[in-house]
Specification:
Elements: E1 6-12, H1 15-27, E2 32-33, H2 37-43, H3 46-49, E3 51-56, H4 60-71
Antiparallel strand pairs: 1-3, 2-3
């Protein structure tokens, strides 16, 4: 895993939604990362920028498809 090649696949101001998306991706075999979870809690930027769920760039299209199907 090259952390320099992560892309944001999902953003939400609600942490529980990001954890649900993370669980869905992991159930489909895609590893995801919520890198700034604790920093957002401390300084409050999640209300402005949202919590960001990242995946490897190679998994981005598959992850986006999975999450779009999950939301419908």
């Amino acid at each position: 895993m090259n952390y320099n090649h992560l892309k944001t696949v999902f953003i939400s101001t609600f942490l529980h939604e990001v954890h649900l998306a993370k669980a869905k991706l992991e159930s489909e075999g895609i590893q995801s990362f919520l890198i700034d979870e604790h920093l957002n809690t401390i300084i409050g930027t999640a209300f402005i920028e949202g919590y960001k769920l990242n995946v490897d760039a190679e998994d981005f299209e598959d992850a986006r498809t999975i999450l779009s199907l999950y939301k419908t």
